[in-house]
Each structure stands twice: as structure tokens, then as C-alpha cells.
Design a protein that fits this description.
The structure is a single chain. The protein is of the alpha+beta class. The strands form 6 sheets. Strands 17, 18, 19, 20, 21, 22, 23 and 24 form an 8-stranded antiparallel beta sheet that branches. Helix 4 (196-208) runs antiparallel to helix 7 (448-459). The relative contact order is 0.07. It contains 7 helices and 25 strands. Helix content is 25%, strand content 35%. Among the domains are: 138-284, Mog1/PsbP, alpha/beta/alpha sandwich (Protein Transport Mog1p, Chain A); 298-464, Mog1/PsbP, alpha/beta/alpha sandwich (Protein Transport Mog1p, Chain A, 3-Layer(aba) Sandwich), CATH 3.40.1000.
């Protein structure tokens, strides 16, 4: 007789001994718990799935070998002793079908997205090609900016996109003949009006990057669309050609504007006439009507060693101690460009208010005394110091003027301490009953154009006499 009968459960390795098969109608596997019957007994309702059982190979015997009966699946899977083996097979099949569906879904989404992008690009291109004729006409005749201005293109000039990008300007036009150019730069300061010093400094920084060997000279104020504008002339090289030009700068309702014209130096008068004619096309718009500037705080100072008062702008000037500076010093202010992240000494402006002994009641004599005092102090540090009185087309370099109700004397000086060190100095002198009041403003020569325009509003606040 055969050694035994393997358990009909394919997942089970138990083998029933031959002796255990004698005279039994059903068996329960001690390993997997499966129950099965022999012979023609009715199928057990506990068997979940039909199991094909291979017959063991046995030698011929006088008694027939019992064969496990084919069964039918039960109605409840939970009672199926083979459910643990069958479920993973069904689950893997289900996951494969799910992955196939998910892959098809992703492919469909990707195809839709590609079609949308392609369609969008085509739509944008179509819209650009279908631009209204009046918009194209506007481009042909002028330029209107979000910076609250418009510019009508002059005859014989054309928009130069390449030069506009190179200069970082809002608009650049070039003359078809003669090599002239005109550029507009605009910036939004929102709630404040940029100071004249800022306008000037921005213009210099902008233009010296574009014109090689850039040099400039201040000119009397001009007008831009009938509004007062600061002005300077300049020269430099552009494409190996010597260029001469001028820059107008102004601010309105929180916006700042720089309008620059230039032409080859050998076309001096003609070039000037051309860009000034072209500049007439610049006009302000009326946005921000009713705009009011948010002015910076003004901090008052009352003199202690003399009867005077003045005020300075917070954020530009800082009051410093006069200890160890000069026994005659009453007030010391140090100023910086608010746009500079690093407050370096070489970029600072210094304003010192001094009270000197009175030597004469004459205004010019008092001014001479102040100049001699300044020179003596400079020579204590730099023995080779020399002083040069400056000539300025806009403001007299050595003259009397009114500040408030007081008559004062203003001197503009170039002080040379050494070949490597030069200062720009302004001396404001006021004779008083008990001495001479001197406001000495100074900075390195390289920063004079910026601080000239910061010294001016500061000295305009000077008043003789104590506050009431």
C-alpha cells in the first residue's frame, strides 16, 4: 500500500498515513484544518473553491485507493479554510487591472495637458496677430506709460528697442540721420518726492554706465512740460564717437523723470536743436490727482553757543557729539545717502555750526575770517592744504544772499589737502552782535554733486535768533 495521501490543499504539505484512510468517510487535515470527504458523500458546504487533487502513484493492490471528492465553493468566504491562500492571487490580479487603468488615465491626462498648452500657445499667437489696428496706430504715433506720462513720436525718429534694453530706459528713440538719441527713464517713489540730490545722483549713475568717459556740468534749471526741472550738460563716448547732451530731471506726484538728449559733438548746435524739438512731445498725464506727499520728519535744533535755529531731515542727517572736534563747534551733523546700505566715512557729508569771535561787522570781512579759520584748521592736519574759490553757472561762488530775513554770505570752495584728497566746502557766514555764526558744510570732492543738493535745503532752514 502507498506510504500515504497528500493533503488536497495545494498550500499544505501534510501527508496522511495510509492507515488513517481505512474505513473513514472524511478527514480533517491537522496542519491546515481542511476537511474533505471520500466516496460519494455530498460535498461539504465548508469548501470554498474546487481543488484538483493529483492521485498518488501506487502499486497495484487488491483494494481501490480512495480519491478526494470534487467540491463546490461555499456561499460565505469567511468559512473557507483556503481563503488565505486564494485571496492574494485575486488581489494581485485586481491590482494589475487597477494599474493598467491608472496608467491609461495618466496617459489621457497628459495628452489633454499637451493639447491645452499647444492650443494656448496657438491662441496667444493668434491674438497677437489679431491686435486691433488702433493699438498698432498708437504704437506708431506715441508711447503712453504707466508712469503717468505720454510721449508723441517726432518725425524722423524711431524707437530703438536694442538701445532701450542696453540703457535700461523706459523709452529710447534715435534719429534716422545724424546719430542723435533721446531716452526717457521713469521711477515710482509712491508716497514721497525724491530729493534733488537723489534725482541728480540717479542720473549720473545711469548715464556714466552708458557713455564712456562721462563728464557733466550743472546748468540753470529748465522745464519739462512747463514744470521746473533740474538740468546738466554732459559729454562722453558712444561707439567711439564723442557725444554731447543734456539731461532734464524732475518729479511729480511721486514719480521721477529723467529725459536725456544727445548727438555727436560735431553736430553741436544742430543736435541740440533736434533733441530739444523732440522733447516737446513729452507730456504728463493726470493720474494720482489730489496726491499729497508723505514728507519725512524734520528735527529742530536750537543753538546753545549762539542764538540761532535750524532743522534737518531724519534719515539723511544724524546729530553727533562735538566732543573733541573743535572748541568753537556748537552742532555737528553727519549725513549719508539713504540709498547706501553701508554708511562709510568717505561717503558722508559733514555740517558743523561754529561760533567764532567777532572781528568786524562787515559781511565780507566776516566771511574772510571764516575762510581763514577753516584753512588754519585744515592745515593742522594737512599742512599743504590750498583753497580755490569755485565758479558755478547756477549759483555765485562767493556772494551774499538772503536766508529768511537775514543777509548771509555764501562761499563755495575746493579744498586740496593732498594730491589724493580733495574736499568740497560751503561756508555760510552770518555776523552777529556777539560773534560770527558759521555753517561749514563739507564732503569729499567725489560726492559734491550729491551733497550740494542736501546742503541747500539744510541751510535754508537756518534762522537767526532763538525760537519763540
Amino acid at each position: 500500500m502507498a506510504a500515504g495521501l497528500p493533503c488536497p490543499n495545494p498550500a499544505c504539505t501534510h501527508v496522511f498515513p495510509a492507515d488513517s484512510l481505512k474505513g473513514v468517510a472524511a478527514l480533517v487535515c491537522p496542519r491546515c484544518g481542511a476537511r474533505f470527504q471520500f466516496g460519494s458523500s455530498p460535498p461539504s458546504p465548508l469548501i470554498a473553491t474546487p481543488v484538483r487533487v493529483a492521485m498518488p502513484v501506487q502499486p497495484s493492490t487488491s483494494q481501490p485507493v480512495p480519491i478526494a471528492a470534487r467540491t463546490t465553493p461555499p456561499k460565505e468566504a469567511g468559512a473557507n479554510p483556503f481563503s488565505l491562500a486564494a485571496e492574494p492571487i485575486l488581489a494581485r490580479s485586481s491590482r494589475r487591472r487597477h494599474r493598467r487603468k491608472l496608467g491609461l488615465h495618466k496617459l489621457a491626462v497628459a495628452m489633454v495637458l499637451i493639447a491645452a498648452v499647444a492650443g494656448g500657445a496657438f491662441g496667444v499667437r493668434w491674438l497677437l496677430n489679431q491686435e486691433p489696428a488702433e493699438e498698432q496706430q498708437q504704437k506708431d504715433v506715441g508711447h503712453e506709460s504707466i508712469y503717468n506720462y505720454r510721449f508723441s513720436y517726432p518725425s524722423g525718429w524711431k524707437v530703438d528697442a536694442k538701445l532701450k534694453q542696453a540703457m535700461g530706459a523706459n523709452l529710447v528713440l534715435t534719429k534716422s540721420e545724424g546719430g542723435g538719441g533721446l531716452a526717457i527713464l521713469a521711477r515710482d517713489y509712491k508716497t514721497r518726492t525724491p530729493r534733488d540730490a537723489e534725482l541728480h545722483d540717479q542720473a549720473v549713475i545711469w548715464l556714466e554706465k552708458f557713455f564712456r568717459g562721462f563728464e557733466f556740468e550743472a546748468q540753470p534749471d529748465g522745464k519739462l512740460d512747463d514744470q521746473p526741472a533740474r538740468q546738466f550738460e554732459f559729454q562722453g563716448e558712444l561707439d567711439q564717437v564723442l557725444i554731447k547732451g543734456e539731461c532734464l530731471m524732475t518729479a511729480r506726484r511721486g514719480w521721477a523723470y529723467w529725459v536725456v538728449g544727445w548727438a555727436p559733438a560735431n553736430r553741436d548746435d544742430t543736435g541740440v536743436s533736434e533733441w530739444r524739438t523732440a522733447r516737446v512731445g513729452f507730456h504728463f498725464l493726470n493720474n494720482r490727482e489730489g496726491w499729497v506727499e508723505k514728507k519725512p520728519r524734520q528735527i529742530p535744533i536750537q543753538g546753545e553757543k549762539a542764538g540761532y535755529r535750524l532743522s534737518y531731515t531724519e534719515g539723511v542727517w544724524e546729530k553727533q557729539s562735538t566732543d573733541g572736534i573743535d572748541p568753537s563747534a556748537d552742532v555737528l551733523l553727519r549725513g549719508y545717502d539713504p540709498r547706501e546700505p553701508d554708511r562709510l566715512a568717505e561717503k558722508a557729508g559733514i555740517v558743523t555750526v561754529l561760533r567764532l569771535p567777532r572781528s568786524d561787522s562787515d559781511l565780507k570781512a566776516a566771511s574772510a575770517s571764516a575762510r581763514e579759520y577753516m584753512l588754519r584748521k585744515q592745515k593742522e592736519l594737512y599742512p599743504e592744504t590750498t583753497v580755490e574759490v569755485l565758479a558755478d553757472k547756477k549759483d555765485p561762488a562767493n556772494s551774499s544772499l538772503n536766508i529768511g530775513s537775514d543777509r548771509v554770505h555764501l562761499s563755495r570752495l575746493r579744498v586740496k589737502n593732498s594730491p589724493q584728497r580733495e574736499l568740497y566746502v560751503e561756508l555760510v557766514t552770518v555776523p552777529m552782535s556777539d560773534g560770527i555764526l558759521v555753517m561749514q558744510c563739507e564732503c569729499l570732492w567725489s560726492r559734491c554733486e550729491f551733497f550740494k543738493q542736501e546742503f541747500a535745503p539744510l541751510r535754508e532752514t537756518l534762522r537767526i535768533g532763538k525760537s519763540k
